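REQUEST ID: PR-0412
SUBMITTED BY: lab tech R.K.
PRIORITY: routine
TASK: structure prediction, single protein chain
INPUT:
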Amino acid sequence: MEQKLNRNQFKSQARLPKFAIPSYYDLYIKLDLVACTFSGNVNININIIEKTNFIVLNALELNVHEVLFTSSHNQEYRPSDAIMDKDDEILVLVFDEPLAVGEGILRIIFYGKLNEHTKGFYKCSYVEKEVKKNMAVTQFEAVDARRCFPCWDEPALKATFKITLDIPSELTALSNMPILDEKLNGNLKTVYFEESPVMSTYLVAFVVGLFDHIEDTTTNGVKVHVYCPVGKSSEGKHALDVAIKSLGIYTEFFSTPYPLPKLDMVAVSEFHAGAMENFGLIVYRENELLYNEKTSTANRKQIMAISTSHEVAHQWFGNLVTMEWWTHLWLNEGFATWISYMATDIMFPEWKMWTQFLRQTSHGLRLDAQEQSHPIEVEVHRADEIDQVFDAISYNKGSAVIRMLQSYLGEDIFQKSLSLYMKKYAWKNVETEDLWSVLSEESGINITSLMECWTKQKGHPVVYVNCKDNLLEFKQSQFVSSGLQGDGRWTIPITLSLGSYNNQRNFLLESQSQSVDISEMLPSSDGKLCSFKECDETLWIKVNVEQSGFYRVIYDDELSARLRKAVENNCLSAADKLGILDDMLALCQACKQPLSYLLLLLDAHRKEHDSMVLSKLINVCYDVVEIITDAMPDAVNELKDFSSVSSNLLLKD
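STATUS: complete
OUTPUT:
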């Protein structure tokens, strides 16, 4: 039965209809860098799933010149109409005669312009002998492969790719796979790349420009190259060293080798993001890849190490195992953020990366406390909604929640679970629940029940802690920075230390309130257990040890006083001191605690020497001024020097 075209039936849909599924792309592109145009053709092996008069795929800002579908029986079909819908970014091919179920090849000839918007296939620049010239770069994440060639531009529709480029002979062409062959033809050369394994369209990449490069090889034989502007190859050494070490760390951590024969990293002058993890070809903005030993700062060296290890991590978490749809973006970005700190900490233990990670946690907590926050998992309905989920909730909250889960399960179980996850889902697509399932099987804990409250609802809790005799009473409510009462509820992994980091207890706060007996954690005298209130005032209780949990904590007056004494006596780690400060500041700003409590806490740091804590104290001093200024505008003149005076006092020996 012949299908009739309804022009609206494919519009305003998040996903393409599954009439046809691609399995292989043979893509050829000829580049004209003078006119900033490109022409090409693509042969796509597709499987017709159900008898249809339509093929619907993605295309945007392209001119389609010719279309031909050839069935497995060599029967040719030309569409009677090809409708390009710019609003929904789709190309609808209409055939008078239905296409039968089975395999076939869809050939499309097209041409387009290199845009100037750093998305899709775009124009970039380089300098040769003080002359600015054009080069070309791709940036396809999230849904911009369709700007370069017609395709099924969804992460779940993985396929293999064979790419061929015609480029000026003096330039270098890079793509996901190694070069198979090159053929010169006058001022042009044709570059043939090896066929790729299956991957999503947003990870396809090619760069054409003039570069110097340096290279090294991992112990597993993977060739790693860093491509830099001419004359700056030495500035790629730091990134090259980090990439080599990261590949080894992740290969061991995931118990899965890097899946491609090479890894290229290339610096380009114009790039919207800091970097992009294209499979086998990571593209960076120049200042995110190049490090000058003489002029770059120590902070820049750390940032670049984190960025490089983040993008390398994506080669496993994102590229080898890929989210099924953009709703699960946090699986890519949250995990890559978390594990980049783990890898950097292994490479540079002197940097104390897990203490620095608290900046990620703090930023995530502050954004997530706003009333307009959103869950980690956000349902994406249209292509133009995807960019909105690339924010601090996916990256910062996502990574902090992962760290909380790792801390609760333990490093060994967590690492083993991720190794099993990689093996089970290699080259496939996943949803968040697939990861929870593997973690549940390995840990024996219902991880789905534990984690859904963290990924599917917005916000986070504040935990109230009160001590009555030898009972700690815990209550939770949603923390909102405006001071309003939220209605969220969480299953919270609680960690607490009593008097020592060797004296810890972990449990789940699964209801609104819960009491915990700490008698067995208390010191004894003559074989008799002491009451907490009878113990020396220097005995302290710290909840959310090392700030591994994504929540705020409010202590009763006695517990707060004991913690201040612990700060004075330098009994707490830098991470816990930072966490207590950050919590108290946020609680005061939300009018959950009086400002005097924060001032008392600041005073307790008079003997502080840790640089990260001192930096936080200085920032808090400025925040105190803002709090007082907002409350009492007339006090501005009296307080204008408060921050600098306080900072100087804190920095005195």
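NOTES: The chain is about 30% helix and 30% strand.
REVIEWED BY: pending
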